[in-house]
Amino acid sequence: MRIRNLSAVIMLMAGSVLAHHSFTAEFDVNKPVKLNGKVTEMKFSNPHSWIYLDVEKDGKVVNWALETGSANALIRRGWKKTDLPAGTVLLVDGWQARNGSATANVSSVTFTDGRRLFAGSSNDAAPTK
Amino acid sequence: MFSWSQKALFALSAVVLSAQQTQLPRAVDGKPNLQGIWQVRGKVAADLKGIVEGGTIPYQPSAAAKKQQNFTNRQTADPVGKCYFPGVPRIMYMEYPFQIFQTPEHVAIAFEWSQVYRLIYTNGKAAPHEGIDSWMGDSRGRWEGDTLVVEVKGQNDKTWFDLAGDFHSDAMNVTERYTMLDADTIRYEATIQDPKVFTKSWKISIPMARQKNMKRLLEYQCQAEAEEANGLFERDPRTWYPNPGAPASPLGKPAVMPPSGTLPEVKTGTNLRRLADGKPDLTGYYQSNAGGANYGLEQRRSELRLTPSTRGVIIDPPDRMLPYQPWARAERINREEPYRGYDDPTAHCFVAGVPRSIYVPSPMQILQPPGYVVMLFERMSWRIIPLDGRAHIPDNIRLWQGDSVGHWEGDTLVVDTTNMNGKTWLNEVGDVVSYAEHVVERFIPTADGKITYRATVTDPIAYTKPWTIEIPLNRANDELLEVACHEDNGDLQHLKDVRDEYRAKQKKGN
């Protein structure tokens, strides 16, 4: 468990340093979000990877786009496209986009059993937790 | 047996062949030296049919229908029309020059088109990262006699072969053969295998001609030019180089700057790896330890925990703050407003400029082919630094990465860069730089695999005196991957929404 936590920290750092745009310009630190939903797609891409998550609220399902670090950072740590299959249930903390769309920058991703996933914010300039 | 005349003919042709071979320029390792600026001879980018052996591409029936559909929609559907990476082999026969660099372990190709490059490993090593697809694929080369043979694998299914809609799947493998016919001609051949799309493999062949009158590549930044043309990227008239006929900078001509302060000396290492010519061997994959320089160069305390506290990377002036002119400080502060995030060129995936390319948080590769230092950046751009003592290009040519020339001072590589276009930002918080920027970089090898990087920036439009940053660069045992940026840019629209909302409010207010 200790090792797992350590690797989560490494992942967090890896994800955190590969931004290509201003965090504060795109995301609103005054709009923290907590999401619980099912993965519909993991898009391995640069400069950011995206997790798409179906989140149910008041009987309606909204597909959120969640920004994480670059595909290259994930690849360098041994992640594969298939490592996050559709249907996986995740708990996500992050900050919503300023434009109010169902988009967020991710600060942490947790499996239902409490394990943490690689994702950190895509930007150093994101608030520290 | 053979007649006398036949024997004479054999003897004669052997003489002709060996004469040709001895005429080929050769690298120190005896391989044909492909180094130089090249471009294909002939126009095939619109339709490659003319260079296909046998004249037809052997499509499977269902694929032939898709090719026809692509052709019908080609004006909007061609990926290159959207400035997406062309893939291999298409990048090789686009009508733009490219420069080949050669070392015993690598062949690198830098393309004028959008500063794309290919790094072909000829060191016999396998790719360290498996199961990745990319736009330009993974290239591994080997020499078969005097022919460079390159296997290209792992390309995605998003590129075409030409504007006519000829396409492939992600199962495609390409085998390229580069054969020098004489000092100024390479025969380029590519064999395409893709069992999902074609009934059998097929081959193209086209000559490449040395561009003897071309001294250096310039830049064709496809996406940046498109966005500037359609108004999606706006230049700041205070910092960018005036076009002929446009009003001069409102700030007037650059004044002469006072000299910068004396910097503490950094000693070069004693046990450095060296090249055959005795210069330090800087070749390799590097990560900068930039201390958040891409989020601000100055010393700062974290505010609202939005940015980490940092000592910054400025070593001169001693207060570790940038010596801004008042207008530029005001502009720098304004650029932190959320509605200005859209204006950062790297948010558009444009190249980062100098010195930002060094400290964006992505790795780079340094190569030292004869006569040059070449820097390849994972965010797909290059810097080609000639060491032959040449002068800078004419003042009216302005480039995103500027014009760099280099020389050695002892074991320190010194690079002088001018001709910047004034469109770049120094980082995400918008530290300001103008077209008048003049950068002197020092790559000081302090130990094997360790470089102390210093850049002194003189920019009389934005600053009152020169300033210097210092950043450590560390060599690691890895290879560059590809960053396809604007191809997958999910952020820009969000930033534009914030900008547009602000502008709409301003308009309403007036």
How would you describe the overall organization of this protein?
The complex is a heterodimer of chains A (129) and B (510). Chain A is α+β, with helices and mostly antiparallel strands. Chain A is 19% helix and 40% strand. Chain A contains 3 helices and 5 strands, in the order H-H-E-E-E-H-E-E. In chain A, strand 4 and strand 5 form a beta hairpin. Chain B is globular, with a radius of gyration of 25 Å. The termini of chain B are far apart. Chain B has 510 residues and is of the alpha+beta class. In chain B, strands 10, 11, 12, 13, 14, 15, 16, 17, 18 and 19 form a 10-stranded antiparallel beta sheet that branches. In chain B, strands 4-3-2-1-9-8-7-6-5 form a 9-stranded antiparallel beta sheet. The longest helix of chain B is centred in the N-terminal third of the chain and has 20 residues. The mean pLDDT of chain B is 90.
Low-confidence stretches of chain A: 1-18, 119-129
Shape of chain A: globular
**Mean pLDDT metric of chain A:** 76
Shape of chain B: globular
Helical percentage of chain A: 10-25%
The largest β sheet of chain B comes out as: 10 strands, antiparallel
Quaternary state reads heterodimer
Derived structural class of chain A: alpha+beta
| H/E element sequence of chain B | HEHHEEEEEEEEHEEHHEEEEEEEEH
How would you briefly describe this protein structure?
The complex is a heterodimer of chains A (129) and B (510). Chain A has 129 residues and is α+β, with helices and mostly antiparallel strands.
